[in-house]
Each structure stands twice: as C-alpha cells, then as structure tokens.
Amino acid sequence: MAVLVGVTALGAVLAGLMWLARRVRRRGIGDAMMGPFEEIWHPAGQRARIEIRVQEERAVPMPSPDDRLR
Question: Which branch of life, at top level (predicted)?
Fold first, then answer.
C-alpha cells in the first residue's frame, strides 16, 4: 500500500511539473523563472538567450498605413 501511495505521489508531482512547463512555455515567462539557475549552471545558454532578446528588440517596426511610399 505504501508503495502505491509513493508511486501515485511521484506521478502527481511529475504531472504538475509537466503542466507548469507547458504553461511557462505558452506564456513566455521561462526567462524570469529559470534565468538565475541558467546563469549559474549554463552561462553560455544565458548569454545566447540575452543575445536573442536583444535581436528581437532590434526588429524594424512596421510602417504605419499613413506613411507615404518611398
């Protein structure tokens, strides 16, 4: 009986972590949650993520409909 309770509890924890991972990816809040840990254990990955964020912010804005064609 104790083994069944332990396996069920482990399954519930893993299912909760999977749900949390999907939610974090969908909302795009993974950087805020995992950023400090990634910086400690995988600094190259953190630098790559920062570079990607900078490139996204550097995107050329779309022209407004009121702008004349050049």
Answer: Bacteria
The SS3 assignment for 69 reads coil
- Cβ(46)–Cβ(35) below 8 Å: yes
> What's the Rg (C-alpha) of the chain?
21
User: Rounded to 5 degrees, what angle do the CA atoms 58, 60, 66 make?
Assistant: 145
d(CA 28, CA 49): 13
Q: Enter the pTM of the model.
A: 0.46
Tokens at 18, concatenated: 């999977």
Q: How far apart are CA 51 and CA 70, in angstroms?
A: 32
Q: Where are the alpha helices (DSSP H) in 1-70?
A: 2-27, 30-41, 43-57
